[in-house]
Sequence to fold (465 residues):
Amino acid sequence: MDCVAPDRLVDRQLLAEARAGRAEAIGCLYRRHHRVVLAFLARRVAEPELAADLMAETFAALLVLVRDEQRPLPPFPVAWLMLTARHLLIDSYRRGEVEDAARRRLAMEPVVLDDGDLERIEEISAETDLRESLAAELPPEQFEALRARVFDEREYPDIASELRCSPAVVRKRVSRAFHTLRRSMGASSHD
Amino acid sequence: MTDFIDRLSNELVRVAQLDVTPAHSGGVRRHRMLTLVRRKPTVLVIGLLAVVAAPALAVTQPWNPAPRQIVAQKGATAAGHVPTGRVSITTQAPSAEQVSRLGILRRPARAIDHSPEVARALRQLYGGFTGVEINYVRVLHHASGEPLVLLVPAKSWSSPPGPTRQPSESVTNPLCVVVVPPSGIGSSGGCQPTSVLTSGHLLGSYGSFEYGVVPDGVASVVLHFPDGTSHKVPVQENSVALTGPAAAQRSGPPQLPRSVQWLDSSGAPVPQTG
Fold:
């Protein structure tokens, strides 16, 4: 199974195959995108353990979705992963601990980290270019929405200045694209 | 496949292969992945578990990976005595002697032992801990409005280095008692070798709240304080906790008992060693 082809259609196919019972497909999807999810999280928390914890829950949440045939599969899985990671991160701020509902539902065994793992997380965080990675995976409008909403968290006037359009236009574009992203996440979308 | 990236991949594939109906699987899993890191300045003291009044505790914030934590860490660095480093965990058991002497370590963990409050307290441990025996952490005392007291066995523990505690001391196979105030903010406590348990000195105080750990066979203890007062306290699962009205009636500054007498279930003295 090809786990590295940089084609978002591969992601959707992997999810479909995972839903059909091909367990390795979820492993492939994880190996394709764990770096960008982990880097995103590792740059926003003080400790690499937390990033790993949040990443594990993010992918577990994806597997929960895959196993629930009542829920549509996200057309942009990497965008779904990023938004879910962001949701879990914000939720962890509020709760003071990392959510583990998906891992509990799946009866996943805990993954214990050693010092080498922690160094690896920091390496991945340092090596991964988030924008470049996601730009290669997403259509431009989806990437822009994700970037504005998830990564930059900038004010619309700033984005407008960069894109040379009015803030209202930016707001509308981001809103439309983000709405598409949220819709793609299915009925239990976050945020 | 060696690092956690691969292990998590394997675990995802493994559970994806299982014919599990999610709605029915929630109650059959182990405790969630637990990461143990020092997230905020926490002072743990060594020696005869030190007397620590609430205001003397390191002021800490609930774990929060947001920028506020960075501020807290800067403050901790400026204080100059807050150690850094990572806490490692292990699924191994405590030493055979500890397990044989403490029934609380021989019984299975209960829900309270894996509660969010305990997880939160463990996340506050600082880097002096090596090999926290995560499956054997036990709640010694919990009650509304009172400190949460945990027994935390570990492979080793080193006291915080710093200007007031030189040089750093190390304890192998320590029995650590961690006390979290009712606010949940900060913690105190200390770590001791098993010999301190058997000598009757694994005791500490938090304000007027006195706590301790005793070996199997001790049904109650009599605490004799320097002010002349004595209190008989029943033992529950190796745990001693002088709290409530008995603790409140004691006045003056926090103090450890001058001596401790152990009694068995018939009221007969139990000898201490050392």
